[in-house]
Write a structure and sequence with these properties.
The protein has 236 residues and is α/β, with parallel strands linked by helices. The chain has ten helices and six strands. The chain is globular and about 50 Å long.
Length: 236
């Protein structure tokens, strides 16, 4: 919940200029708040650059009496390509279950949108040795009946979000490998798996050097265009 329309447009003007020359090497997406999506889309259109426009959430219905919600159909009309579903903050603060997340992912696919499914364990679950059990449940229930083509999975250990703590590259790699093996065995597909959790310019290079870490879901560090650019630059 950062950056209204004017701030978002100003952010994009600076960010796009800094990222010149990087677009052919790195896929970049931005997920502004709903109210800022049109302003961001206009800057992307005006500059004619290949940045993916994303949203932070969506409802599971196309229309109806769901006050305050935004539907996949509305997002598609607004030019959105990807939608983040099941972020740990949605699960924790808004009590989104695996079943709700599954309904949302199915709704996205029906509307031709791509989903970024977030999964991750809490500290007590990791300490109890339940990490893989939690990840397996979240993926299998979240993707039930969903065509996985066009899905991205973001592993975001809840204990590393906004805490300054980052899963070591080795810890993250272990979970990413497990996720990729699960997707391959259950759906016979290969899809991108990205890491989220206190990603910073200082740690991105060591993270993406791991074999099964395909990129990053950047949270707080993406609010500043200069810091976000440094993360992207350090991916190369």
């Amino acid at each position: 919940m950062h950056l209204g329309p004017q701030e978002s447009a100003a952010f994009m003007e600076v960010f796009i200029e800094k990222c010149k020359g990087l677009y052919e090497f790195v896929d970049i997406g931005v997920a502004p708040p709903f109210i800022s999506i049109p302003a961001v889309r206009e800057v992307i259109r005006k500059k004619d650059i290949p940045i993916h426009l994303c949203a932070q959430n969506a409802h599971w219905e196309d229309r109806g009496a769901f006050t305050g919600e935004v539907s996949p159909a509305m997002l598609r009309e607004a030019g959105v390509e990807y939608v983040i579903i099941g972020h740990s903050e949605r699960r924790e603060y808004f009590f989104e279950s695996d079943e709700i997340i599954n309904r949302k992912l199915n709704a996205l696919k029906k509307n031709g949108l791509k989903g970024i499914l977030c999964v991750g364990e809490k500290l007590e679950e990791r300490e109890a040795g339940k990490t893989m059990q939690i990840i397996k449940r979240q993926i299998e229930k979240g993707l039930e009946g969903v065509e996985v083509e066009g899905i991205v999975i973001a592993y975001e250990p809840v204990w590393a979000i906004g805490t300054g703590r980052t899963a070591s590259p080795e810890i993250a790699q272990e979970v990413h490998e497990f996720i990729k093996d699960l997707i391959k065995s259950k759906w016979d597909k290969e899809i991108p798996v990205i890491y989220g959790g206190s990603v910073k310019p200082e740690n991105i290079k060591s993270l993406i050097s791991m074999k099964d870490i395909d990129g990053a879901l950047v949270g707080g560090a993406s609010i500043n265009p200069h810091t976000f650019f440094e993360i992207i630059k350090n991916c190369l």
